[in-house]
Design a protein that fits this description.
166 residues; 3 domains; elongated
Length: 166
């Protein structure tokens, strides 16, 4: 590896990519720097070797076989690509949903829902036998709109569904 800072610009000079002032600067530098001159000579030699090669032409039958293989690969990989995307989306939903559910109780002050599950009977018997004292203590001390709406619904259920029940 050369210690000359202009060696990196030799390839750009060889390819004609430098602006005229930078090209002139490198041309004046080349006689004094053996590393840059060697790099330019190597690039010119390699370009000459590649320039002497004849381009190869593939036979039509071989070209058709290559296209057939690529087409077959594309149709199979499309299904796999869609399956991979769907699996990634499903995993994202699971991760995001799990994180959301893990944070949900903390965001609501660690409250949990009250669920009253009857041991026996139908929903009608639960509605008729519903007692306000079956709610957890302290819940009735802090009424809010939802709780009042639930209480009114329960009162309606008790009053209207208990008619005709022995």
């Amino acid at each position: 590896m050369s210690d000359c800072e202009l060696t990196a610009r030799v390839a750009a000079y060889h390819d004609g990519e430098l602006d005229p002032s930078a090209a002139q600067q490198l041309e004046s530098h080349l006689p004094a720097c053996a590393a840059c001159a060697e790099e330019l000579r190597n690039l010119r030699e390699m370009s000459g070797l590649f320039g002497a090669l004849k381009p190869l032409r593939m036979e039509d039958q071989s070209l058709a076989q290559v296209h057939d293989v690529i087409d077959a690969e594309d149709s199979e990989s499309g299904i796999l690509r869609i399956g991979g995307l769907l699996a990634a989306m499903a995993a994202s939903v699971v991760v995001i949903g799990g994180a959301w559910l893990a944070e949900l109780p903390a965001a609501q002050g660690q409250r949990s829902a009250v669920v009253i599950v009857p041991e026996k009977g139908t929903w009608e018997s639960v509605a008729v036998d519903f007692q306000a004292n079956s709610l957890p203590l302290g819940l009735l001390d802090r009424p809010d709109r939802q709780m009042l709406a639930d209480a009114r619904t329960a009162d309606w259920m008790i009053a209207n569904l208990s008619e005709g029940v022995p």
